[in-house]
Amino acid sequence: MAEQDGADREGSSVERDVAKLFGERTDAWQAVDADWLAAAFADDARFIAFDGTVLTGPKEIAEARQTYDRAWHDHEIAS
To answer: Which of 2, 30, 40, 42 has its CA 20 to 30 A from that of 21?
Structure first.
């Protein structure tokens, strides 16, 4: 199959970048690292938490993750 518009068998570079970013955020979540999780977000980013809470920017995202961690610290994260 011929390449089209910079795409190859493994997907476009944008698809690879998105997959890499998603993988890193998943790794950060599972590592229980709030700062690492939030680091990829811009100051005006909007993050909708599992409960519908809308968080703005990395500081709010990290703080919410830390609050979640304190509340659920003894529960295992499903993988």
So the answer is: 2
CA atoms 34, 37, 39, 44: torsion sign: negative
Question: How is residue 79 annotated by DSSP?
Answer: -
3-state secondary structure 21-69: HHHHHHHHHHCCCHHHHHCCCCCCCEEECCCCCEEEHHHHHHHHHHHHH
Fill in the DSSP letter of residue 78.
Answer: P
Q: List, in order, residues 6 or more apart from 25 with CB less than 8 Å away.
A: 37, 40
Nearest Cα to 40, choosing from 56, 17, 65, 58?
58
Structure tokens at 31: 């590592």
**5-24 tens-digit pLDDT:** 545 556 799 999 999 988 98
